[in-house]
Fold:
Amino acid sequence: MKENIFPIPKLKHYKVVYFLIVMLVLGLTGCAVDRSETKPYAERGVIDLRRQDFSEGRIFALNGEWEFYWDRLLTPDKFSSGSKLPEMSGFFTLPGTWRGHSIDGERLGSTGQATYRLRLLTDQSVDRLTLRIFDIHEAYKLWANGELIAQSGMPGKSAETETPARTLKLAEVPLQGQSIDLILQVSNYHFRRGGIGEPILIARPGPLEALQTRDWAISLFFAGCMLVMGVYHLVLYLWRKRDVAPLYFGLYCLLVVGYSVTSNSSRWVISLLLPGWNSVSMEIFSLTCFVCWASLLYRFLKTIYPNEFHTFPVYLLDARIAIFSVFLIFAPGLPLYWFIAVCLLQTFLYAAYYLHRVSLCVKRKRTGARILLTGLIIQFVAGINDPLVHMGIIKSVYLVEPAVCLFILSQSLVLSKLFSNAFSSVERLSVELEQKNQSLHEEMEERNRLEKKIVSISEEERRQLSHELHDSLCQQLTGARLRATAMSHRHVKDKDGPELAELAEILKTSTREAYKIARGLWPVEHGNSGPSLEALVRSIAKTTGIRVTFNQNCPCDECMNENITALYRIAQEALTNAAKHAEAKNIHVQLNCCKASRIALTVSDDGVGRSASKNEDGGLGTSIMYHRAKVIGAQLTIEKSPLGGTVVRCIATCVKSNKNFEVGNDR
Structure:
C-alpha cells in the first residue's frame, strides 16, 4: 500500500463539533450586525436625507451634530414660530454621553437633564418613516413635528421627579412636508452616565421591525441553549448529589439566562414574553444575575480543578454579592451603578486570573483544560469588545450572548469529558472487578474441590488406619490375650499364675480399646455405601449408657447420598458433645429426606442447652462441624431447644432422593 503523500490530520470528534459550533456562532453574530449606515452625517443640527435611497431595506443612523440645550427640558412649543427661541448650549455629537462634555469651559457631570434637537430634510417620495430609540439612560421623550411619538419613563430635574426606564422603542414618524423637526428630552439621575449611548436609527417601515425580530430570535436561541444546559446539569446533580460541579454549573447557566433576557444586550427580549414586566424590576434582576453568577462560576472551576484554583477568591466574590445587596437596598441609584462599574473592572481581573489558572491546567494536562481555555479566550475577547462598543470607540455588535453561550458550551464539554472519563474508569474497573470475581470464583471452586478431596483422603486414611488396626494390631492383641489366658490356666498353681491372669485382663482391656478406636475411625458396618448412623447410635448408647434413639425417613433402603460421610461425622461430633458436655439423659437422632431434594440430619438432646453460631467461639468440635457443613454446601444450625437442651440441624443436598417415597419405620 502506498503511503499517503498528503496526510490529513485526524481531529478528535469533540474538536470537530467545537469548530462547527464556533462557526455557527460567528454566523449568527454576523446576522445580528446592525446594517445601519452612518452617512449622511448631521451638521449643525441638520441632516439631509433627500438624496438617500430608503429602498431595499436600508437603515440610516441619525449620527452627528444635534442642537444641545443643557439643563433644560424643552417642549416643541418653545421652538414654535412666533416665540423667542431658547439659547442653545452648543452642538452635541451623537451617539455620546454628556459626562465630560465642556460648556463654556465647564465640564459636565454624570447627572442632569438636556434637550436635543435635529432637523431632518426628506424627499417628497418618502411617505412613511420609522425611528428606533434604544438604551437611553434613564428617561426620555421624543417629539416629531410637535407630536409625541416615543417616551420611556418620565424625565425630571431631580432623582425624585424622574421616573427611570430603559426600553427599546420603534416609533412611526409623521411626515409633513419635506422636513421633520425632532426634539428629544433626556434626564439622568440614576445612572453613572447620562446621554444617548446608541445611534438613533431611521428607515422605512419594515427593516427596523425585521432587525428587532432578528435580534430577539438570536437572543432567544442563545438563551434557550443556555437554559437547556442549565436544566440538564441540575437534573444530573439530582441524580448524583455527591458531585456538586453540575449544581454550580446549572445554577450558573440559569443566572446567565436571567441576565441575558432582561438586559440591553438582548434588547430586553423578556418584554416579548412578559410585556407587563416593569423595566426597573428587569434592570435590578439582570444586575443581580450578573453579580451572582461569578461566584458560581468560580466554584465550578474550583470543583473541577481544585489544585489549580485558590480558595480566597470565592470569599471576595461572596463579599461582592453582600455589598451589592446593601447598595440595592440603601443606595439603588448612582452608587449602585458605580459599584456595577467596579464589578465590570473586576471581571477583567478575574478573566485574566482564569486564563492564567486554566493555562496552568493545560500545562499539567488536566482533563478538558484546552477546551475551557478556548472558551475563556473567546469570552475575554467579547468582554473587551462590548465595553468598547458601548463607549462608541469601535463599531461592532454586542457579543456577550454568543460569547457566554460558547463559554458555557466549553464548560459543558469539560463536564462531559470528565463524566466520560469517569464512566470509562468505571467500565474499566467493572471489567477488572468482573475478571477478579471470576478468578476468585474459580479459586473458591478449586479450594472447595481441594477441601472435598482432602476430606475424602482423610476419610480414606481413616478407613485404611481402621482396617490396619482391626486386621493387625487388634488381632495381635487378641492372640496375645488368648495366649496369656491359656498360660494363666496352666500355671494357676504357680507363683506366676496371678500375674499371667492380670496380664491377660490388661490385654483384654487393650484389645477392647483398640477395637473401639478402630470402629471410631471407620466402623466395620460402614460397608461400601458409607457410614452407618444406626451403628453409631448403638455404639454411643452402649458406651455412655445414655438412651439414644434413631429415626430415619428415607426412600432408599441404603442411603447413597455422597454427603452421608460428612453428615456421619457431624452427627458423631454432636453425639459426643451431648454425651460429654450437655449432661443429657436422652438423645434423639433423625435423618429425613425432604421432597425438595434435600436431606436433613437432626441431633437433639435434653441437656443443659447451648447454641453456637459460626461466628461464635463454640469450641474446636463446633468449628469442625461448621467446616464440614461448608465443604458439602450444607446449612448447619446449633440452637437451644424451647423445651431445653440443644438442637443440631444440618441440611444438605440429596440428588438421589425420590419425590414419591414411603416414610420408613423407626429402627
